[in-house]
Amino acid sequence: MRNVRWQSELHAYLESVRYTPFAYGRFDCGLFAAAVIRILTDTDLAASFRGKYADEASAYALVRRVCGQASMEALAQAQFSACGFGEIPSAFAWPGDVVQLGAGSTSHLAVMGFGAKILAPSDRGLTEVDRKSAVRAWRIE
After folding, report:
1. Domain span holding position 79
2. Whole-prediction pTM value?
3. Is residue 1 part of a domain?
């Protein structure tokens, strides 16, 4: 179940990271999705990841150790299934739901923002992506 104040807290968080540039181990797609999940549900999926990687190679090495494959797709499936976050058609994703962009080793995670746009970390901060780009989605509640 989502926290009672999830909408205002999500909005405040998204505003606070709007111009934060992508950086492995500080503000990357996994930590971004985990931060949103924590706001919505108080579940901290990144607790065992924080501070344990600082670049792409060490990030994917950690992901491989955790779920057996070096892809965000595999990590999301393992973590979200364990938490009971069900997969949904991406067209039905709500604000705060996590979506997957790309597949396999090129997959990364993003979050549905308010409105019809997906928000994803980039070198320029949060980037809006058309929701049609999502290949998978999970209901976060």
Report:
1. 6-138
2. 0.95
3. no
Helix/strand/coil (H/E/C) assignment for every residue in the chain: CCCCCHHHHHHHHHHHCCCCCCECCCECHHHHHHHHHHHHHCCCCCCCCCCCCCCHHHHHHHHHHHHCCCCHHHHHHHHHHHHCCCEECHHHCCCCCEEEECCHHHCEEEEECCCCEEEEEECCEEEEEEHHHEEEEECCC
Return all residues near 26 (Cβ < 8 A) that are at least 6 apart: none
The predicted model gives 91-109 an average pLDDT of 93
Q: What is the per-residue pLDDT across 24-60, written as a single tens digit (0 to 9) for each?
A: 999 999 999 999 999 999 999 999 999 999 999 999 9
Residue 11 belongs to a domain: yes
